[in-house]
Automatic annotation (TrEMBL):
Keywords: Capsid protein, Virion
Statement: the UniProt record of this protein carries the keyword Transmembrane helix: no
A Pfam family recorded for this sequence: Coat_F
Listed name of the protein: Spore coat protein
Taxonomy, superkingdom: Bacteria
InterPro entries, sorted: Ferritin-like, Spore_coat_CotF-like
UniProt source species: Anaeromassilibacillus senegalensis
Residue span of region Disordered: 64-87
Compositionally biased intervals (Low complexity): 66-87
């Protein structure tokens, strides 16, 4: 049974999230700057692929992203401002 287009996009998005998480770990654990830089370049490319897939899914209505309520935004800002005593 063939996967429908939406299922393929869901699978790709999930895979990209896993890939970026993995490359992030690799970049954090590099012993040399040259290798770290290369992993950071790869990580950036993988994040771009993930963003492109996410944007295409939003455009097709497969990943709705409702606007946040202003009250919720203010609550989140206060929560994190209070957690950071340097601000």
């Amino acid at each position: 049974m063939a996967m429908q287009e939406k299922e393929v996009f869901d699978d790709v998005l999930t895979s990209q999230k896993f890939i970026t998480e993995t490359y992030n770990t690799y970049a954090n654990e590099c012993a040399t700057p040259d290798i770290r830089d290369e992993f950071m370049n790869i990580l950036n490319e993988e994040h771009q692929i993930q963003a492109d897939v996410f944007d295409e899914m939003k455009k097709r209505g497969w990943y709705p992203t409702p606007q946040a309520q202003q009250q919720k935004i203010q609550q989140a800002k206060q929560k994190f401002q209070n957690a950071n005593p340097q601000s």
